[in-house]
Amino acid sequence: MNKKIVLATNNANKLREVSAILAPLGIDVISQREAGANCDPEENGTTFAENAMIKAKAVYEAVGMPVIADDSGLCVDALDGRPGVYSARYAPKGMECAKLLDEMKDVPENKRHAEFRCVIAYVDGNSEFTFEGVCRGVIGFREQGENGFGYDPIFVYDGRTMAEMTDDEKNKISHRSMALKKLCDHFKVE
User: Fold this and answer.
1) pLDDT digits (tens, 9 = 90+) for 96-112
2) May I ask the CATH class of domain 3-189?
3) Which of 44, 21, 13 is nearest to 5 (CA)?
4) Would you kindly state where each structural domain of the chain is located, as residue ranges?
5) Rounded CA gap, 104 and 78, in Å?
6) Catalytic residues, which ones?
7) CA–CA gap between residue 157 and residue 138 (Å, rounded)
8) How far apart are CA 117 and CA 123, in angstroms?
9) How far apart are CA 141 and CA 137, in angstroms?
């Protein structure tokens, strides 16, 4: 399959991650900036699916090409699912992990379960779909690792934080890769 898709983001980390996952399938991913979209729609939905679709539709309106958008975040069981859809706005940029660790300082090891959740929205003018991916793990007690971004340094999966994994290791198990695999499966049956 040779297909070009616009990713509704200018986040270089997300673009790199999504490109790496979709490239082997013959899908070329470009940023919204590369496609000529200069928009930053307000993510005022109350769910990951609503926010992903808001972004996908806005960028599709600007470029008229197939678009995927994701909304993702960290849902912590002990915090009743917070920060959830507010993960990116939970704390000042770069302080998210520190704030979460502080909020969980008295939570024992057996109660630190969490999940990364991602919804990918796809819009191409004829179709609109969403695909969800989830990765369960636990919140560590300190930041560890140099790779990854966001909450990766405190999210522990199978004994290591996502920031301690290589990109290839992370892309095999991440919430975003799970959602993207469902998108790819959809393309295969079309």
Assistant:
1) 999 999 999 999 999 99
2) alpha beta
3) 21
4) 3-189
5) 8
6) 71
7) 7
8) 20
9) 13
**Cα angle: 159, vertex 164, 111; to 5 degrees:** 40
Assign 35 to helix, strand or coil: helix
Structure tokens at 57: 């539709």
- pTM score: 0.88
pLDDT digits (tens, 9 = 90+) for 25-49: 888 999 999 999 888 888 899 999 9
Residue 3: in which H helix or E strand, if any?
strand 3-7
95, two tokens: 């302080």
Note the pLDDT tens digit of each residue in 133-189: 999 999 999 999 998 788 999 999 999 999 999 988 988 899 988 998 898 888 775
Q: Cα–Cα distance between 137 and 113 in angstroms, integer? A: 6
CA angle 185, 189, 190 (to 5 degrees): 115
CA distances from 152 to 89, 98, 122, 161, 185 (A): 16, 12, 25, 6, 26
Contact 143, 155 (CB under 8 A): no
Strand runs labelled E in 77-188: 113-123, 128-139, 155-157, 160-161
